[in-house]
Design goal:
Number of strands: 28
Strand content: 25-35%
Structural class: alpha+beta
Radius of gyration: 23 Å
């Protein structure tokens, strides 16, 4: 594909998990994309360390799962400490049964965000994708044919489409004038830091309930795949947490039995006020908002990064189909239609977990997310006993073929016996697994059932409408 007068077909602003995932998805579709990042390199910090089962499924499709699994580990059981003594265990996550909801992944997997970004960056480079650092966005203009994004250096890039994946303080969103509506989830500031601590075991998540008048708790997580810990501490409203080594040592000394000198290093630290906010729209002309630029979550439910990666997964195949001339530009309207209600739901969930109203369990694993109400969803069966159109397509085996293996790649997949299916669609012949129920199932490139029917009636028309006719 040639960009002609354009610097690139898609300009992705932000080299976090959202932007890198989108870059990978576009690169494997042969779409020319450039990821730009305001900083000199990938951002530091463990930040969003919890990868939910649905995101692991996405990462399997994008070709990074093996590296992700090697880099991380499962979440440890919580150990509650009182006055220097172990006072009891705490299960942070409700357990899932093996194979629940047709997924090989049953619980969250811990990988520090900085490591997830390195893995995605490496995969993007393998596919020929590009990231340009030290590119701070200061403005943009768009017209009917494209978007021009301007940088602080005085340079600019012209693209057919642009995607804001540049975080909660998105420069692109501000340049568009797009508002965010939200609320403060907790007025109390939080300190989060990656630290080195000697003499603290790594078999447990260490929980130190609030002690004293400041009402602040402290939690220390062993970061899987590293020698580091993530420390999170809550402070009274109006406080200004000290992010230095001395400040971290002080709060550790006040709230735990750990000697302050045992905190030997602060590798990264940040403070924030947990909030929940949703962009008023996810699209403005040829510019799309994704990830934290579109929705900001409390970290308590482990939903922010995961919802963000799935924004990219939803948008990637649609941009690819339109840019290759396989689908009408109207397909891009379905990005906001599908993702904004989903993000709103996940924001409510994250807030509920933060406030102790919702357990971390089936809902937070994100396997039940779907698009039943989408205009891309067509269900033609009179009786449905299993998976409906719009639902995530579960894993399973048909005729010795693992379904997730068949789905992997940038194509559509038809599950069932049918004739006259166009070449770009991969066909897995044979009855669907029992979890699906009877019928034919057309699975989208992002792993959701787009069309389902008792026979082939209407299938050709649907395929033609999404650019596969």
């Amino acid at each position: 594909m040639t960009a002609h007068a354009y610097g690139t077909d898609v300009l992705i602003v932000g080299a976090g998990p959202t932007g890198l995932s989108l870059g990978i998805d576009l690169a494997r579709r042969g779409v020319e994309a450039l990821v730009v990042e305001r900083g000199p390199g990938l951002s530091p910090g463990s930040r969003g360390k919890g990868l939910q089962p649905r995101t692991l499924e996405v990462f399997e499709d994008l070709g990074v799962l093996d590296a992700i699994l090697e880099a991380g580990g499962s979440y440890p059981v919580g150990m509650i400490w009182q006055d220097g003594q172990q006072a009891g265990e705490h299960q942070m996550f409700d357990p899932a049964e093996d194979g629940e909801e047709g997924s090989p992944y049953t619980g969250p997997w811990m990988v520090p965000q900085w490591r997830t970004q390195e893995i995605l960056f490496t995969r993007l480079a393998e596919l020929g994708g590009k990231v340009a650092f030290d590119r701070e966005v200061v403005g943009l203009d768009q017209d009917a044919d494209g978007v021009t994004v301007r940088f602080a250096s005085g340079t600019a890039v012209r693209a057919r489409y642009a995607v804001a994946a540049d975080g909660g303080r998105s420069a692109v969103r501000r340049a568009l004038g797009t508002g965010m509506t939200g609320e403060t989830v907790d007025p109390n500031p939080m300190l989060v830091a990656d630290v080195r601590i000697t003499g603290l075991g790594r078999d447990y998540l260490h929980i130190f309930p609030q002690r004293g008048e400041d009402g602040g708790f402290l939690v220390i997580w062993p970061l899987a795949g590293t020698e580091d810990f993530q420390l999170a501490a809550r402070f009274p409203d109006g406080s200004d947490p000290d992010l230095s080594l001395a400040g971290v040592r002080k709060v550790v000394a006040e709230r735990t039995h750990i000697a302050p000198e045992d905190v030997t290093e602060v590798l990264w630290s940040s403070d924030f006020r947990p909030r929940a906010a949703l962009a008023d729209r996810f699209r403005d002309g040829r510019v799309f908002l994704a990830g934290d630029a579109a929705h900001v979550h409390s970290p308590a439910g482990g939903q922010g990064l995961n919802t963000s990666v799935q924004d990219a997964y939803n948008l990637g195949w649609k941009l690819g189909a339109v840019l290759r001339g396989e689908a009408p530009a109207a397909l891009l309207d379905t990005y906001e239609e599908e993702r904004r209600p989903n993000a709103a739901h996940m924001l409510d969930l994250s807030t509920g977990v933060h406030r102790g109203e919702v357990r971390r369990g089936e809902a937070t694993r994100q396997l039940g997310i779907g698009y039943r109400e989408s205009s891309l969803t067509v269900e033609t069966r009179a009786t449905v006993t299993g998976v409906r159109a719009g639902d995530r397509a579960p894993d399973g085996t048909v005729g010795g073929v693992r379904l997730f293996d068949a789905f992997r790649g940038p194509h559509w997949t038809l599950l069932g016996d049918a004739s006259g299916v166009p070449e770009p669609v991969r066909v897995v012949r044979g009855p669907a697994p029992e979890s699906y129920g009877p019928g034919l199932f057309l699975v989208r490139p992002d792993g959701y059932v787009g069309w389902a029917g008792e026979s082939e009636a209407g299938l050709a028309e649907y395929l033609a409408g999404v650019g596969c006719g």
